[in-house]
Amino acid sequence: MADNPTVDNGGLTDYVVATDDDGTAQVQWVKLKYGADGSFTAVDGSNPLPVTGTVTATPSGVALGVAEDAAISGNAMRQGVRAHSLVPTAMSADNDMVSPWADRSGALVVIPQPRTVRVAATPTIATSAYVAGDQVGGLLTFTSAALATGRSGQVLQAVLTSRTPTATNALELWLFAASPTLAGSDNAAFDLTDANLEAGLLVGIITFTGTDYVTTASGAACMGVPKTAGAAFPSFVTSGSANLFGVLVARTVAAQYAGTTDLVVALTVNQF
Length: 272
Known about the structure:
Blueprint: E1 6-7, E2 15-16, E3 19-21, E4 26-28, E5 33-34, E6 41-42, E7 62-63, E8 75-76, E9 82-83, E10 101-102, E11 115-121, E12 135-142, E13 152-162, E14 170-176, H1 194-199, E15 202-208, E16 213-215, E17 220-223, E18 225-226, E19 235-237, E20 244-252, E21 263-271
Parallel strand pairs: 7-8, 9-10
Antiparallel strand pairs: 1-2, 3-4, 5-6, 11-21, 12-20, 13-17, 13-19, 13-21, 14-15, 14-20, 15-18, 16-17
């Protein structure tokens, strides 16, 4: 039977009923409406059917509602993302739809967005003469060099400033990912036992060369370079805190410092 049959309305005007033949019978098309008694609102694209309350569906054997950090048993519901060996393509504009991306092993592809910070430390130093090999000041703490304990980062730049313009002393900055136990003290020979050197997790050495200082009438500044020529500044993973630690070591001494807080060591760090 054809769809949309005409109904014989007797002596009145015949009318057509909207139907669809599903193969077994004519099924009448019905328009949805809602509203209080005596009134209605037709359901369409601008007026969707209102739904109140909570709609839940728990398929058989699927574990839903598992608390965070709790064990999952049974056939847990999983969410998948597209796997691809290529690098994701950037969207063309802000607010565009973007999907998560994973490699073929299921690891989510993440493009790091580093946060750049400046961390500085001021050692308490002697105003008496240092000699080559002396520790200059005590242990330096570069507070919150990483975002959190166990997080990684990379030093981008190291700057040493001095309030004594004639004290263009060549120094090394030994950097550690954990707080080392120093065998010596300020204005004494720098030393670390083998065990403490390993426990301190040395990440790199930065050199401040005497000939690299730029002086003014009241001070001096020096840009540090990696100890190994041509090498990159050190990367690190903090341990036990979010801090980096450092020790200044004298290599050549041009002059004494005028004040006990004349030196400032500043690091620019990318935090991951």
